[in-house]
Structure formats: C-alpha cells, structure tokens
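Tutorial, part two.
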Amino acid sequence: MTERNERYFRIQFIDSKKEIMTFFAKSVNPSSYIGLIEVSNILYMDSEILINPEDEKIRKEFKGVKRTFLPLSAIIRIDEIEEPKTQVLKLFPEEK
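Running the prediction step on this input gives:
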C-alpha cells in the first residue's frame, strides 16, 4: 500500500434551501472569521460516461468560487478520506 501526502475531505452541510449537500475538497481549515470553516480546492467528479446530478448541483453552487466559508451551524459532517470516488449509480432497488 503506497502512502500519499494528499488529503481529501468529504463535507456535508445544509444549504440555504435546507437541503443536504455533499462535496469534496482538498483543504478544510478553521477560519479567522468566528464561527466559519474555510473550504478550498473544491473537487468535481469528472466523468465522460455519467452525469451525476449531485455533482452538477455542486458545480452550479460553487461556480467561480476559489474558497468558501461555511457556518459551523450548517455543517453536518467533515470526513478525511483516502480518495474521492464517484458515487455508485443504482439502477435497480435493492432486494430485501
């Protein structure tokens, strides 16, 4: 197993429309602004085969944004992950 120096984060937060959004970034830091978290280097899941509606929503929300500041009260969870992956598209409901 090779060790990489790159860190990735999965951020889940509640947007202004009260919807839960999830996106990936390379940098998450405490902000000098009280009550905010600074997120920069937002990653998008590029695929020539599939268009992920969630990713398109994130692209529109953060179009032209170099870094964003999220209020602590809106953040649900921040996970450090090994590598961002595209979400699996389920075509059929799971059998129980």
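Residues 87-92 have pLDDT under 50 and may be disordered. In part three we will examine how such features are distributed along the chain.
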